């Protein structure tokens, strides 16, 4: 397939990651609802591991596609039918930099939260001495992935959808 499946001159993998970013937020909210209101710790654990695996696969495939297959995001944006003006191009670059702050820190927080939870929380999962730190790391990871998602979607809009 030459372009993405969302109807813009993007790539298949870029559209795949954008779709994953949209799906991740409601799944994460459901996981937090399970643990906070339903106290279903096992379901929360399973969902968080699945979300982590999906993120890892999506980000790896995405980086291979953008960096190796297309030689950078600029080449993908240049596929547009109506090219971006230099101002629009610079704006897209700045939005991307903001997005990268969250996109780089999220996997670090996510991996730390997951690693410590698997190591320190008993099996089957239940509140324990690690709960306080886990809640802190968990909320940081949650806010970080949400901001990754929002800024990533905004970048996609600026780069491919606006004035297309
Ligand atoms: C990156 C992955 C994870 C994230 C982002 C995450 C996020 C969270 C958050 C935000 C809370 C606090 C909810 C509240 O305010 O009450 C929480 C609670 C909890 N999580 Fe996770 N979690 C993750 C992985 C895990 C894993 C792998 C386990 C099990 C091994 C686990 C077990 C628990 C338990 C038992 C609680 C309840 C703690 C308590 O209230 O005492 N979590 N999680």
How would you describe the overall organization of this protein?
It is a single chain. This protein is mainly α and 164 residues long. It has one domain (12-161). It contains 5 helices and no strands. It has helices at residues 12-36, 41-69, 73-77, 86-120, 131-161. Helix 1 runs antiparallel to helix 5. The chain is elongated, with a radius of gyration of 18 Å. The model has no long low-confidence stretch (mean pLDDT 95). Protoporphyrin IX containing FE binds at residues 32, 35-36, 41, 44-45, 48-49, 52, 110, 113-114, 117-118, 121, 125-127, 131, 134-135, 138-139, 141-142.
Please give the structural blueprint.
Layout: H1 12-36, H2 41-69, H3 73-77, H4 86-120, H5 131-161
Class by alpha and beta content = mainly alpha
Q: How many domains make up the coordinates?
A: 1
Shape: elongated
Number of strands: 0
**Unreliable runs, pLDDT <50, ≥5 residues?**
none
**Sheet having the most strands:** none
For the termini, the CA-CA separation is: 20 Å
Q: Which oligomerization state do the chains in this entry correspond to? A: single chain
Number of helices: 5
Ions and ligands: protoporphyrin IX containing FE
Calculate Rg over CA atoms: 18 Å
Strand content: under 5%
- pLDDT averaged over residues: 95
Order of helices and strands: HHHHH
Helix fraction bin = over 70%
